[in-house]
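Researcher: Quick sanity check before group meeting.
Model: Go ahead. Protein one:
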Amino acid sequence: MSDIETIIYNQHPEYIIDERIIKKIIRFLQQIEQTEIKKLTIIISTDQHLNRLKQEFYDQDVLTDTISFNLNEPDEPVDGEIYISADRIVANAKKYEIKSEREFANVLIHSVLHTIGYEDGDDQSRKKMFALQEKYLAEIEYQGIFTKREDSENE
């Protein structure tokens, strides 16, 4: 499998993202899923940004943790964009009583699985996808992937 062009933009001022860990997780998923990923662009942003995207592309006025877009044609290597809301990561981590870095890794895995073709639109496919996420989450190292800046004032 070829190298993956991974571009990461952290647009959220309150959090630090470890690009090395993100790239390692993406390579792991490419290898274990036996799929060709050409390019992934990952944008870490805010609730407001993802809400605008959700309204524009899905006509839904809701908060979401991630949105994935495939830019490749069918039967071509994956070329995608993944948007992740750092605000939702933190809120969901509190809600589920888990660490934010675990939630970030989980959402990243979920998003990459979407770009390689997994869907979660019905109960059966959702169960399959969430089971894979849990399996892969248990097999990777993600400590330090997502941390709060020390100079950030608000939680």
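Researcher: Fine. The other one?
Model: Protein two, sequence then structure:
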Amino acid sequence: MDYVWSPWRYRYVSQASPGDECIFCQAAAGPDEESYILHRASRNFVILNRFPYTNGHLMIAPFEHVARLEEAAEATLAEMMSLARRAEKHLREIYRAQGLNVGMNLGQCAGAGVAGHIHMHVLPRWMGDANFMTVVGETRVLPEDLAATYEKLRQAWR
């Protein structure tokens, strides 16, 4: 069995506790710039991941606090997929992504860091983007500051 290590996420998982307010609900209630919200649609919002796997790693979350797909309205899910399509377009254009990972982890045992609020991850990928530091050094090197990523993608979503 192979193991995949992601030590750069330790800061994220060690800060959250079961009694904490939902990070997505908290972000949606705050100012866009402070929360890194790129776009607000009618049922969902697009937000940068504060602890990204790659530059441009964003998430799409509904405004409604639901833990399961079956609890979300059909219109919410349809809009989520439409936003994922727009995210793909922007990430390919701005970051010249050669591929993308798009997915959801539903439930804590499935790997959801925020199990109580569904959200979809959209990550740009490139050939050879797993380099020496990631594979051997167990460290992810992100060449761009989160604020710079926000400005680039915020312009695209306008």
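Researcher: One line on it for the slide.
Model: Helices lie at 10-15, 23-29, 32-35, 74-95, 132-135, 146-157.
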